[in-house]
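Methods — Computational structure assignment.
A single polypeptide chain was analysed. Its primary sequence is given first, followed by the predicted tertiary structure written as structure tokens.
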Amino acid sequence: MGFIVIFAVVVVLEIEFNKGQVFKQREHIKEIKKRIAELEEKKSEYPPTDPLLFSQMTTKTTETEFQLNFRKQQPTFIPILREKVPKITSGEENLCMMIKLNMTTREIAHILNIDIKSVHTARARLKRKLPLEDDISLDDWIRSLG
């Protein structure tokens, strides 16, 4: 008899736990749907540069499309960046654009189809090239432009 009671309690606890998990998943799905709706609204305003809409830059055409869309949103950024860093490469410009868009290292690695360590290396090399003061981070300096 005691075994049945313990078994029933365990079953009830599992059901309650699963209800909590389902609730959390439903809330997460609601957040995702809300984000998709926000992105759909913005899609007409701006061409896609959001990491959710722009999955990977694996071809030159995709990279060029990203650059054109970014320049529509941030027309003064690249000219100012080139003025401050005349020897910047196109790859470093792309990295700066992604940082300007508040993309995480993981998102940048995914979009560029490279390892996270490679993004860290690229960021370190870029940082050495920029006229940064000691108390300013790479991200803050880039986001302050244009």
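Note: The longest helix spans residues 2-45.
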